[in-house]
Design brief:
Blueprint lengths: L1 H5 L7 H8 L5 E3 L2 H11 L4 H23 L7 H5 L1 H7 L6 E2 L2 E2 L6 H29 L7 E5 L5 H9 L6 E5 L3 H11 L7 E5 L2 H7 L7 E7 L8 H13 L1 E10 L2 H31 L11 E5 L18 E6 L2 H6 L9 E13 L17 H8 L15 H6 L9 H6 L9 E4 L4 E3 L2 E9 L7 E9 L4 H9 L5 E3 L7
Parallel strand pairs: 1-10, 4-5, 4-7, 5-6, 7-8
Antiparallel strand pairs: 2-3, 8-11, 9-11, 10-11, 12-14, 12-16, 13-14, 14-15
Helix pairs in contact: 3-7, 3-9, 4-7, 7-8, 11-12
């Protein structure tokens, strides 16, 4: 099989390679429907009072962050030895369950402030994450989704925009009645809504839903795990969420060192848990002389990681996160507090992981079989030897390239639909942090797989020069933080 893959013809051209690699969006504009819904929801509020509510919510978030950082990150020993003291430090999680005190309760003032100031940013980050899941898994068309910690329905709005008309049922777990009411109020003027069920806990969901109906195509937990006071409770919760999906689990946290650490821990645990389960099933099948394995065994990362090995950023002082810029909504521009002039946009930092059941497909690496001309070879092909034409008239300079926008590589919708997408194989690296442009060279920090199986990964600095590879150099200059980067297998190097 490996030989067949390596001998396959190139799957991409230079132009389709650029389209497949583009996963990020420079500036997201919140949909008109959501902006109008937010304006209707808060239009009767006094601006002075709303600014105070937004400022109070921001200070509350900072207090939660500081309090939870004081909690032990290993096994929550203090939670076991002195539960009352741990409850005091975990200020906002007050709903008791079998896995600890979880469930963020919002009062009316906090809900209003959240809808006005935070919901557009959370929605934009979720839209970015779900859009990539759709591009990486084009055959996915979710009809039943679970949103744990649904809040005011940011994930639902993103789902309806990414997969219009696909969603039939949405189960939301949100302990705050105020947030539930706000979410329904924002949706009241929309048509063709899916069937929405709200629960205050997972226990309530499992109590009211029959076991055969508990499986969901996609399970989302956004900005929730960081509020849970211990690693033990987070793992128990994520295992429950994993058991409630038959396809993909999406976890999103704020783009901070703590959020990245939480995502990394949950990623490692799910992959380890499924690897152990698969190994046990193999042993049992051998003992019973059966060669068949149950479907959906194992797990692999859809995004952002291009491999399933240990995170190469661990113990490096760096952390994996991404940024989504969004155009501020009227409510954000009116009520958010700033020291100086408030900008017309903001950058939402986030960490995420999308894990799918099954085994990672084996695909050919995108650069295998492709040949790129050097700058000298391109000039020889473009300018005949007996024709003297100034080089400047045929080749754009670095200064001219900086003035070009993304529009120069856009194609029509029909061509984009026909172009191949980036597959789930190990031949695509992920650009972490913003590429550095230095003269006629671009330096990229890329997280990548080191083998075809995706069992190991590395974090490498890739340098692309205009002299050696003008085509990839052009793509590197257009690439931004979060995009994919095509790679060549070791056999082709």
């Amino acid at each position: 099989m490996a030989a067949a893959i390596s001998e396959a013809l190139p799957k991409f051209t230079v132009e389709t390679l650029k389209l497949a690699s583009k996963q990020s969006q420079r500036c997201h504009v919140v949909s008109e429907a959501l902006r109008s819904a937010i304006d209707r929801y808060i239009r009767e509020q006094e601006p002075v009072h709303m600014k105070r509510k937004v400022l109070s919510l921001t200070q509350s978030f900072e207090g939660i962050k500081e309090a939870n950082l004081l909690l032990p990150s290993s096994t929550s020993r203090e939670l076991v030895e002195d539960p009352l003291k741990a409850m005091e430090r975990s200020q906002r999680w007050k709903v008791k369950s079998c896995y600890g005190d979880v469930g963020l309760r919002y009062q009316e003032d906090q809900t209003l402030a959240y809808v006005a100031a935070r919901m557009p940013a959370v929605y934009s980050a979720l839209y970015r994450v779900l859009s990539e899941v759709k591009r990486r898994v084009p055959d996915l068309s979710p009809t039943k989704v679970l949103d744990f910690g649904g809040g005011t329905g940011s994930a639902l709005w993103a789902m309806m925009e990414v997969w219009p008309g696909s969603l039939k049922q949405m189960n939301m777990v949100e302990p705050s009645q105020s947030m539930q009411r706000a979410g329904l109020s924002l949706l009241k003027d929309l048509d063709d809504l899916p069937l929405i069920h709200s629960y205050d806990s997972i226990e309530s969901l499992t109590k009211h839903v029959r076991k055969p109906d508990r499986q969901h195509n996609v399970v989302i937990a956004s900005h929730v795990l960081g509020e849970i006071p211990s690693l033990k409770d987070r793992i128990t919760l994520v295992r429950q969420l994993w058991n409630l999906t038959d396809d993909i689990l999406v976890l999103v946290e704020p783009g901070s060192p703590q959020g990245s650490n939480i995502i990394s821990q949950m990623r490692s645990h799910i992959l380890w848990m499924e690897k152990r389960r698969t190994r046990k099933l193999l042993i049992a099948a051998r003992k019973s002389s059966k060669e068949l394995m149950p479907l959906n065994t194992g797990a692999f990362v859809v995004a952002p990681c291009p491999h399933d090995g240990p995170c190469p950023l661990r113990n490096t002082g760096k952390y994996c996160h991404f940024v989504q810029r969004l155009e501020r909504t009227p409510s954000q521009r009116q009520f958010k507090w700033a020291r100086g002039t408030l900008r017309g946009f903001e950058d939402e930092k986030f960490c995420y992981i999308a894990i799918r059941r099954g085994t990672r497909p084996r695909e050919s690496w995108p650069l295998d079989g492709m040949k790129f001309d050097t700058l000298k070879e391109m000039r020889e092909k473009k300018i005949p030897e007996n024709l003297e034409v100034p080089v400047e008239t045929n080749f754009s300079t670095i200064d001219e390239e900086e003035e070009l926008e993304d529009d120069d590589i856009l194609v029509s919708d029909e061509e984009e639909l026909d172009s191949p997408e980036a597959d789930l194989g190990t031949g695509w690296g992920r650009i972490i942090y913003m590429p550095m442009r230095r003269g006629n060279r671009v330096e990229l920090d890329v997280c990548r797989a080191t083998n075809c199986e995706g069992t190991d990964g590395s974090f490498d600095r890739i340098v692309v020069t205009q002299r050696q590879n003008p085509s990839l150099h052009h793509q590197a200059r257009r690439s931004i933080w979060g995009d994919l980067w095509p790679l060549r297998s070791r056999k082709e190097r």
